[in-house]
Specification:
By secondary structure, this protein is of the alpha/beta class. It has helices at residues 41-47, 97-100, 151-154, 160-170, 186-197, 212-218, 229-233, 253-256, 280-284, 298-311, 325-333; strands at 2-7, 16-21, 29-38, 64-71, 83-86, 89-91, 112-113, 133-137, 142-143, 178-182, 201-206, 222-225, 239-244, 259-267, 289-292, 317-320, 340-344.
Length: 350
C-alpha cells in the first residue's frame, strides 16, 4: 500500500516528501492512520547518521498516535475506529526470558525498532511514524484512553513518557521518597510530572535559573540550579533515587554524592562522548549505585498510558507541520522547545 511519508535519502540530505510501501494487514496485524507523531532526539541522531548504522531511505518517528482502519482476522484486542499508539518497538523474538517477562526492550535476540531495523517489508528495514499510516502486529499496539482533544500531547508519552516511567516504577518510586530529576527537557519534564503524580517529593535539577518557574509549574517541589555548589551541598546524602535524563557528557559525582546510602541514580540519556569516570569511593562508601534503563516493555507502556489518562497527564508540546521538520531539528539542537515537537500528520496530505 503506497503511503505518503517524510524522510531522508542520505545523512547530508534534508528530509523530504516520499512515497513508501506499507504491508497490507496480515492475520495478526493492525493498520493505523497516524494522526500525530512526536519528534524525538533519536530521530535526529538516526536520520543524520550521528549514530552508526542508519539505513536509507530513513523515515523516523516512534511516538505515534492514530486510529485503527483495518485489522487482521485473528486480532482480538482492537477494532476499526479505536484510538491507539505505537512506541519504539514493533516486534521482538517473543521467546527469550525478557520477552516472557514483558520486557521486550531487552529482547535477547534483538527487538525490531519502529524505524531502522531489518524487516521483510520493503525496503528491507522498518520505516517510522513520519507517515500517513503504519501496519503493526497486534501485540505491539497500545490502547489510548485520553480524550481526542489531547491526542497530540499524548504522542510523546510513547517514548519520553515510558523512558521515564520505567525506571520510576522499577525503583518503586512513591510516597515518602525524595526523588531528583536531572534535566528539564523532553524526558525530564515527563519525569517531573510522573514522579510527582506517583507521590514522591520531587527536586528538579537544571543548569538554567530561567527554568526554575517552569520546573515548579511541571510539579517539582524544589528546584536546584546544579551550577550552584552551595545549593547542591545542601542536598548531600538525601535522595532515595535520582533520574538523570541529560544526554550530554557531565560529572556524575555531583549527583551520586546526593544519594542516601543504598540510593540509585539511573541514567536514561546516552551521551555523544563518555561521562568522566565516576569517583568509585562515592559509590563504595554509601553502597550507592549508578544504573541505566531503556524505554519500557509493552505491558509497562500500557500501564503508563492508563496512569496518565487517569491522572490527566500529557506532554507539553508545540505542534508543527510536517514540512517544518528541518527547522524543528535545528531548534531541538538548541534546546529551543518546551518540551516536545509533535507533527500534525494531516499536513502530509499537502
Amino acid at each position: 500500500m503506497v503511503t505518503k511519508a517524510y524522510g531522508a535519502y542520505a545523512a547530508d540530505k534534508p528530509l523530504e516528501a516520499m512515497d513508501i510501501e506499507r504491508r497490507a494487514p496480515g492475520p495478526n496485524d493492525v493498520q493505523i492512520d497516524i494522526a500525530f507523531c512526536g519528534v524525538c532526539h533519536s530521530d535526529l541522531h538516526t536520520v543524520r547518521s550521528e549514530w552508526a548504522g542508519t539505513l536509507y531511505p530513513c523515515v523516523p518517528g516512534h511516538e505515534i498516535v492514530g486510529h485503527v482502519t483495518a485489522v487482521g482476522g485473528e486480532v482480538t484486542k482492537f477494532k476499526v475506529g479505536d484510538t491507539v499508539g505505537v512506541g519504539c518497538l514493533v516486534d521482538s523474538c517473543q521467546r527469550c526470558p525478557s520477552c516472557a517477562d514483558g520486557l521486550e526492550q531487552y529482547c535477547e535476540n534483538g527487538f525490531t525498532a519502529t524505524y531502522n531495523s531489518p524487516t521483510q517489508d520493503p525496503p528491507g528495514h522498518t520505516l517510522g511514524g513520519y507517515a500517513q499510516r503504519i501496519t503493526v502486529t497486534e501485540k505491539f499496539v497500545l490502547k489510548i484512553n485520553h480524550s481526542e482533544d489531547r491526542l497530540a500531547a499524548v504522542a510523546p508519552l510513547l517514548c519520553a513518557g515510558i523512558t521515564t516511567w520505567s525506571p520510576l516504577r522499577h525503583w518503586k518510586v512513591g510516597p515518602g521518597m525524595k526523588v531528583g530529576i536531572v534535566g528539564i527537557g523532553g524526558l525530564g519534564h515527563m519525569g517531573v510530572k510522573l514522579a510527582a503524580a506517583l507521590g514522591a517529593h520531587v527536586v528538579a535539577f537544571t543548569t538554567s535559573e530561567s527554568k526554575r518557574q517552569d520546573a515548579h509549574d511541571l510539579g517539582a517541589h524544589d528546584v536546584v540550579v546544579s551550577r550552584d555548589r552551595d545549593a547542591m551541598k545542601a542536598h548531600r546524602g538525601s535522595f532515595d533515587f535520582i533520574l538523570n535524563t541529560v544526554a550530554a557528557s557531565h560529572d556524575l559525582d555531583a549527583f551520586t554524592s546526593l544519594l542516601k546510602r543504598d540510593g540509585t541514580m539511573c541514567l536514561v540519556g546516552v551521551p555523544e562522548h563518555a561521562h568522566p569516570s565516576p569517583n568509585i569511593g562515592v559509590l563504595i562508601f554509601g553502597r550507592r549505585s549508578i544504573a541505566g534503563s531503556l524505554i519500557g516493555g509493552i505491558p509497562e507502556t500500557q500501564e503508563m498510558l492508563d496512569f496518565c489518562a487517569e491522572h490527566g497527564i500529557v506532554a507539553d508540546i508545540e505542534m508543527i507541520r510536517m514540512d517544518a521538520i528541518e527547522e524543528a531539528y535545528d531548534r531541538m539542537q538548541k534546546s529551543d522547545v518546551k518540551y516536545r515537537f509533535v507533527i500534525d500528520s494531516a499536513t502530509l496530505a499537502g
